[in-house]
């Protein structure tokens, strides 16, 4: 169905061309949009906005990765020398939330609930990891705290790995970026 829920029809002129969407937003954005927010057995609504939303999510993933990679060069410079923040509770909460996500992802994926699995990953990666944890740990990560940087990278790459079935091309490019020497 189209973005308005109407059955696609050539005579109505509301057919969505997947090749145009792929050319405009990328293959991974289209793949993820076809799974994201769908209900098994229900009609699938495909719209330009949904694919654009997945493209924006992919851009967010790249930006998180760029920030984490940028910490390599900042660690060699002495930007902040004294970190007085107590980040222990934030790290513990991040670990706890990520472990819960991994269990939920495995359960959903093994039960063929692929849509719920990507919805959970999207929620965590964008709204929890990027918007909350990366922001909360930014000062500590820039203050030569290699443990914080390593924790952010580990969780980021594991999240990217879980997104691999939905976005294989982007996740492979991200993994290759992190495998290169800094």
Mean pLDDT: 85
Cα distance spanning the termini: 46 Å
| SSE arrangement, N to C | HHHHHHH
Any idea what the radius of gyration is?
A: 19 Å
Low-confidence stretches: 76-83
Categorize the overall geometry: elongated
Structure annotation, total helices: 7
Helix content: over 70%
Percent strand equals under 5%
Main pleated-sheet profile = none
Number of strands: 0
Structural class: mainly alpha
What does this structure look like?
The relative contact order is 0.14. The N and C termini lie far apart (46 Å). Residues 76-83 have low confidence and may be disordered. The protein is elongated. The chain has 182 residues and is an all-alpha fold. Helices cover 70% and strands 0% of the residues.
Keywords:
elongated; 182 residues; single chain; mainly alpha
Write the topology of this structure.
Elements: H1 18-25, H2 27-35, H3 48-76, H4 88-110, H5 114-142, H6 146-163, H7 168-179
Task: Give a short overview.
The protein is mostly helical and 182 residues long. Helix content is 70%, strand content 0%.
């Amino acid at each position: 169905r189209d973005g308005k829920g109407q059955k696609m029809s050539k005579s109505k002129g509301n057919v969505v061309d997947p090749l145009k969407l792929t050319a405009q937003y990328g293959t991974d954005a289209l793949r993820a949009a076809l799974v994201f927010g769908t209900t098994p057995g229900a009609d699938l609504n495909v719209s330009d906005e949904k694919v654009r939303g997945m493209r924006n999510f992919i851009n967010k993933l790249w930006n998180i990765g760029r920030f984490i990679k940028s910490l390599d060069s900042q660690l060699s410079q002495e930007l902040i020398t004294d970190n007085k923040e107590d980040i222990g509770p934030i790290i513990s909460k991040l670990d706890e939330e990520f472990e819960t996500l991994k269990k939920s992802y495995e359960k959903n994926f093994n039960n063929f609930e692929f849509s719920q699995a990507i919805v959970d990953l999207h929620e965590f990666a964008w709204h929890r990891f990027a918007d909350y944890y990366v922001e909360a740990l930014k000062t500590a990560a820039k203050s030569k705290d290699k443990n914080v940087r390593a924790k952010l990278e580990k969780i980021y790459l594991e999240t990217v790995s879980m997104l691999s079935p939905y976005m294989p091309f982007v996740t492979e490019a991200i993994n290759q970026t992190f495998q290169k020497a800094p």
